[in-house]
Design a protein that fits this description.
With about 260 residues, the protein is mostly helical. Helices cover about 80% and strands about 0% of the residues. It has 10 helices and no strands.
Length: about 260
């Protein structure tokens, strides 16, 4: 009974995290996009990011989310990038901080690698000179800052919901870790996975999670089981939530193109 109740609580917190993340996008977009459409965009992007690689979902959802009104792909992508930076920066900082207490020299390596990743992202996505007619990143971001202060408390709540998922997920399998211990483990394993070249941190995040759980006192067998089940559960969750959203967005894009060509 404890297994079922704790897993149910974990899934509920993960669902709350998903909808809270979508609401943050809605606010950062200046409430110009209908909330129902925002949910489809965010769920679709999150599902693709989990199955492929971080960023693939943002690009695909940005293309599918454009319409005949003021909503352009570049504007949607700008909000995705800003929300991603706001959402992951805290976890990366916490991962580096807690990692500093586990392995000497690791924080410097992670910080340097993060700087390289951010620099590469900027040079790849920055607007090209002479790209007339398309909105610049500056134009796409100009309305977002006024909502950042409003969104930041919600980002903290979102992080709590994400940590609460793992808190109850661990307890479902008998790993009664404190909330602080859970946050430490999640932050470091998330950082290892996020900065890895593998899709959704596949292997890196899971190995880090298992190793940290063993360090916290769990048996290797249970730690590996938790890492594998977490990967499967989260993947199934996002495929279920984002699959229907992706299909609906694709249908809307098909109708838009048909209407335009017709």
């Amino acid at each position: 009974m404890g297994l079922i109740l704790n897993l149910l609580a974990a899934v509920l917190f993960l669902t709350g995290y998903a909808f809270s993340h979508a609401f943050n996008f809605y606010l950062l977009a200046g409430r110009r996009i209908p909330l129902a459409k925002v949910c489809r965009l965010v769920f679709c992007a999150s599902a693709l990011n989990k199955l492929l690689f971080t960023g693939s979902g943002f690009l695909a959802a940005s293309r599918l989310g454009r319409d005949e009104t003021e909503t352009k792909s570049s504007q949607i992508l700008a909000v995705f990038v800003l929300l991603e930076l706001l959402s992951v920066s805290g976890w990366l900082a916490a991962g580096i901080f807690f990692g500093a207490r586990m392995a000497k020299g690791a924080p410097l390596i992670l910080a340097v690698f993060l700087a390289i990743v951010l620099a590469a992202l900027w040079f790849k996505l920055r607007p090209k000179k002479g790209d007339a007619g398309s909105p610049s990143w500056k134009d796409s971001f100009k309305t977002a800052p006024r909502y950042v202060l409003l969104v930041m408390p919600l980002i903290v709540i979102n992080a709590f919901l994400f940590a609460a998922y793992y808190f109850f997920f661990f307890r479902a399998f008998g790993a009664a870790l404190s909330l602080l211990a859970t946050i430490k483990i999640v932050a470091v394993s998330f950082t290892a996975g996020y900065l890895s070249p593998a899709p959704s941190g596949l292997g890196f995040k899971d190995a880090g999670l298992a190793a940290l759980l063993v360090a916290a006192g769990l048996s290797p067998g249970l730690a590996i089981t938790l890492a594998v089940v977490d990967r499967l559960l989260v993947s199934i969750f996002w495929v279920f939530l984002g699959g229907g959203s992706a299909i609906e967005l694709a249908k809307q894009e098909f109708r838009r193109r048909t209407k335009k060509n017709g």
